[in-house]
Specification:
- The structure is a homodimer of 342-residue chains.
- The first copy, chain A, is α/β, with parallel strands linked by helices and 342 residues long.
- Chain A folds into two domains: 145 residues, 2-Layer Sandwich (ornithine cyclodeaminase, domain 1), CATH 3.30.1780.10; 172 residues, NAD(P)-binding Rossmann-like Domain (Rossmann fold), CATH 3.40.50.720.
- Helix content of chain A is 33%, strand content 23%.
- Chain A is built from eleven helices and 17 strands.
- The first copy, chain A, has an eight-stranded parallel β-sheet.
- In chain A, helix 2 packs across helix 4.
- The longest helix of chain A has 19 residues.
- Chains A and B meet through helix 1, strand 3, strand 4, strand 5 and helix 3 of A and helix 1, strand 3, strand 4, strand 5 and helix 3 of B.
C-alpha cells in the first residue's frame, strides 16, 4: 500500500503541530539534506509549456529515496477562479521502485519555501537581525513571516504590496499572532531600516521591486519571486554589491535573478557554505543575497519530513497504487477472474 | 477533486467489462490517438538509474490533456518477492494545470501494451492470420492472447517459454477461455506454422529468442520484450527481411531491436501508415516486424480511455490533491486556522 496525505490532512497537520513548529523542524531537515548535497542525483526539471502556463516534473533521488514533484504554473488562473500553482509529490523506495508516499504539495511547497528561506538566513543574515521588510504580501508572505520568527526570532515586519487588499489580508492573518507590523506605501519605505528584505511578488516580468538605493550595508536579501525565465525582482546592480548565494547554479542561471547578469557572474551554491567549502557572510557590513528559485532537494526534504511526521497517525491513508500478485509472472491471474467451471 | 482509480478498482473494471472488450475498445482509442500523432508534444522519458533498477517519468500532452506515467523496472525484484514493474499515471487539464485523474497503471499498462500490439497487427499482419506463436509466457502473455483474439480473431496459439511453470500458468489461465493451445518445446517449434509471432520474454540480454531460420514469408512479428538498452529478442538478420515498424524512432533506436543495427537503418513510424504517409504491408509474402518498446501516447490513450469508461461509476473515487482557497492569494488563511480571539 501507498500512504496518501491530502489537502485536508495537511491542513489538520498544520492545525495540530503549528505552522511555526513545522517550519522550524523542516528547516533542520532541509539543512541536513543540503549538508549531504553530493549524495543526491540531481537533474533538470522537465517542463511542458503551453500558452496557458507550464506543467513540470521535478525528480531527485539519493541512495534510498526517489522523489518527484508535479507542479503547474498558470498565471491567468486567478482571473478564471483557479489557483496559479498546484502541486503534489511522490516518494518511492529506490531498492524496489515502489511508490510509498503520495502527498499534496501546494501547501507543503509554501511551508518548504519559507523554511528554506529562514534556514539560509540563519547562516547568512546578521545574527542581530530584528526587522524584516516584506515586499509582496501574496500567498507566500505569511509563511515567510512565521518561518523567520520560528528560526530567526524576527517579530518586526515592514510590509508593502501594490495590491492593498493583499496587504490587508496579510495584516489580518498575522494580527493576532504577536507581530509588530508596519504597513508601508512603497517598497523603499518598507526596506528602510530593515535587516532582512524578503521579496515575494507575483508579476511575471523583469521587475525591480527592490532598487539599488534601497539596499544598505549589512542587509540580507531573500528574493523568492524571481523564479522562472522572464520573472525577476531585483535591480541587477544589487547583485554586484555582495556575495550571491543560490541553490543549484545551473538552474538559477535560467530561472533566478542572475538571469539578468552574464553567465560567468560568480555565485556560491549555499550547500558549500554548510559544508565549509565556501564562506558565507564574512563581515557585518556585507550585503548578502539569497537568489532562491526552489530546488528539488527542498521538496525531497519536505516530503520525507511530512511522511515521518504523520506516520502512524490518522493523517495518512492507504491507497492501493501497487499491484502485487503472489506470483510475479501471473499478473493476468491477479487481474482477471477465473472463468467459472460449468 | 481528483478522481482516483486504484488496483482493486481496475480489477473490478476488468471483471465487469471483460478484458477482451476493454482491449478491443482501447485499441480503437490508441489508434485514434496514433492518427493524430502530430498533435502531441512528445519528449524523451526521464530516467533515474541505480544498481537496483530504473525509475522513469514519461510525460506527453496534446492541446487539452497532459499525462505522465511513473514506472519502475527492477529486474531483481521477483527474487526478493516484489513485482519487477509497478506503474501509475496522472492526467491533468492543460488549460489550468490541475491534476484531474490518478490511476494505477501496472494492470493498465499490460492492457494497453496488448491492445497496441493487436491494433498494429490489424494493419500489418495478413488478414487471413489464424495462428499466433507466443515466445514467452510471462506477465504480458495472456493479455496479448486475448487482445489478438478480440481484435484479429486469433484463437490458435503455439506457446514456448524456457520456464515450464510459466507455460503451465499460461495454459491454466487461458484453458477455459476457448483457445486452441499447443505447448512447444522450442521457440522454433512454436514459430513453425504461425502467421504471427509474438515475442515477450523477460531476460535482460541481447538475446535471439527468434532465429532468422524460424521466420517464413508472410509472417508478422510482434516483438515486445526488447524494450530497453541491452535487452533484445530477435536475430538482427530478421530485421533485414522486411519492413520494420516502430512507435517513435528516436526512442526505439535506443531501446528496441534496432539498437542492434546501424543508426541509419530504415524504419517506418507506424502512425505514418495510419496517416497514409507510408505503406504498411504491401504483399502477402512480405515479412513485417513491429519493434514495440511502448510509447507515452499509449499511456495517454489508456488513461483517457479508463477515465472515460469509469466516469460516474463507483470505480473512481475523489481524493483531495488540489488546494483551492476561495481567495487565490490567501493560501495561508486556507491552510492555517485563525487564532481564537480571546
Amino acid at each position: 500500500m501507498t500512504a496518501f496525505v491530502g489537502v485536508s490532512d495537511t491542513v489538520r497537520w498544520i492545525g495540530r503541530r503549528g505552522a511555526e513548529t513545522i517550519m522550524a523542524e523542516m528547516a533542520d531537515t532541509i539543512e541536513d539534506d543540503f549538508r549531504r548535497w553530493r549524495s543526491f542525483d540531481k537533474t533538470h526539471r522537465m517542463a511542458s509549456h503551453t500558452p496557458f502556463g507550464v506543467i513540470e516534473l521535478m525528480p531527485i533521488s539519493d541512495a534510498e529515496l526517489y522523489a518527484f514533484k508535479y507542479v503547474n504554473g498558470h498565471p491567468f488562473n486567478p482571473a478564471r477562479g483557479f489557483q496559479t500553482v498546484t502541486a503534489f509529490g511522490v516518494l518511492a523506495d529506490v531498492h524496489n521502485g515502489y511508490p510509498v508516499f503520495l502527498a499534496e504539495m501546494t501547501l507543503l511547497t509554501a511551508l518548504r519555501t519559507a523554511a528554506t528561506s529562514a534556514m539560509v538566513a540563519r547562516h547568512l543574515a546578521r545574527s542581530d537581525s530584528q526587522v524584516m521588510a516584506m515586499i509582496g504580501a501574496g500567498s507566500q508572505a505569511e509563511f515567510q513571516a512565521l518561518a523567520f520568527r520560528a528560526v530567526m526570532g524576527i517579530t518586526r515586519l515592514r510590509v508593502f504590496d501594490v495590491d492593498r487588499m493583499a496587504t490587508a489580508k496579510f495584516v489580518r492573518n498575522l494580527a493576532a499572532r504577536g507581530f509588530d507590523i508596519t504597513v508601508c506605501d512603497t517598497a523603499s519605505e518598507a526596506a528602510a531600516g530593515a535587516d532582512i528584505v524578503t521579496t515575494c511578488t507575483a508579476d511575471k516580468a523583469i521587475a525591480q521591486v527592490l532598487k539599488d538605493a534601497d539596499v544598505v550595508p549589512g542587509m540580507h536579501i531573500n528574493t523568492i519571486g524571481g523564479d522562472c525565465p522572464g520573472k525577476t525582482e531585483l535591480d541587477p546592480l544589487i547583485l554586484e554589491r555582495g556575495p550571491v548565494f543560490v541553490e543549484y547554479a545551473p538552474q538559477t542561471r535560467i530561472e533566478g535573478e542572475i538571469q539578468n547578469v552574464p553567465a560567468d557572474f560568480p555565485v556560491t551554491e549555499f550547500w558549500e557554505v554548510l559544508a565549509g567549502l565556501a564562506p558565507g557572510r564574512t563581515a557585518v557590513e556585507q550585503i548578502t543575497v539569497f537568489d532562491s528559485v526552489g530546488f528539488a532537494i527542498e521538496d525531497f526534504s519536505a516530503l520525507r519530513h511530512l511522511r515521518s511526521d504523520v506516520a502512524g497517525t490518522d493523517l495518512a491513508h492507504d491507497i492501493d497504487l501497487i499491484a502485487a500478485p503472489d506470483d510475479p509472472k501471473d499478473l493476468f491471474g491477479f487481474a482477471v477472474s477465473p472463468v467459472p467451471v460449468s
